[in-house]
C-alpha cells in the first residue's frame, strides 16, 4: 500500500503533524519505534510551560498563534490541555525589561522585586519580575494522547514497534525500511527528535544537533498555601512550574550531559544534580530541597536553539526543538501540513540553512 504521507515518530510533533495532515484529507501512517506514550524521548511527562517569549517578538507572536489551536484540540478531544495559571520571568537585563514593556504592554506587567516576593513568597527575587497572566501549563501526556485519538478518528494509522531503519527515494516515492517490509509514501515527515539526524543523513542538510539528557527535579513545597505560577529565571537560565500531585518542577535549562539516545542510562549526573539542589536552596525559600524526585528527558539542540521545520523534495523535517517546542505543538503540525501540501512554508528562522 502507498500512503500519501508517512510520519516517522509518534511523539508530540509527529502526532500533531498527523492530525493536521489527516484534517487536510491526506492518508497518513505514523511509524513509531517504541510504544505510544513512551519515555525515551522528549514528549513524555505530565506538564510543560506555556509562555510567550518576553523579548522576542516573532516567537511571542507564534505562541499566540498556537493558543487557538490548543483550544481547537481541546474542543475535538473533550479534555483540558492548557491552563492559564500565570507566568513570571526574572533575572533579566534592563534592556530586556524595556523590550517586554513594548511587546506585552496590553497583556503583561512589570512588578518590583519586593512586590513580587510578597505575592509569590516561594521565590527569591533580586530584579523586576515580568508577569504574564495568560501563561500557564500544558498537560503534555494528555495532549499527546489527545492528538493521537483525534488523528486516529480522522483515519491516521499508528504502527508501534516499527523502527525505520533507512529512507530512500525510488520511482518518485519514499521507501521506509521497517520490520516486515518497506512502507511507501508520496512524502515523509521525520519528527523523530534526537533520532532525526541519523535517519536523514545524506538526504537532508541539517544543522548539527547535540542531544542532551536534562535532569530536572520535582520539589515538595513547604506550604500548600503557596501560589506557583510557571516561571523562568534568566540567571542562571532555569524554569519550572507546579504540577498537581507531583510538586514544583525546577530544571536548569540546557545543562545536561551529551548522550546517545539509544544508550543513555536515565540517571542524573551527580555534579549537575548537586548544582540544581544548591540552586533551589538559594532561590526558592518555599521549596524543601531535601524532598525531591529526579526525572529525565532528552533535548535535541541546534546551535542557535531555533527549530528545524523545513522541506527538501519529498522529505519534511520537524526536529531540533531544544527543549522549548512543546507550547508550539499544534502550530508545528500546521506548519508541517502546509509544507507537505505546498500551501505555505514555515518561518525563515526554521529553515535548514539560512
From TrEMBL:
Q: Quick one: signal sequence residues? A: none
Keyword list, A-Z: FAD, Flavoprotein, Oxidoreductase
User: Which residue spans traverse the membrane?
Assistant: none
Please list the residue ranges annotated as the FAD dependent oxidoreductase domain: 4-338
InterPro entries, alphabetized: FAD-dep_OxRdtase (IPR006076), FAD/NAD-bd_sf (IPR036188), MTOX (IPR045170)
One MF term in the entry's GO annotations? sarcosine oxidase activity
Q: Which cofactors are reported in the record for this sequence? A: FAD
Record protein name field = Sarcosine oxidase
Q: What is the lineage of its organism?
A: Bacteria, Bacillati, Actinomycetota, Actinomycetes, Propionibacteriales
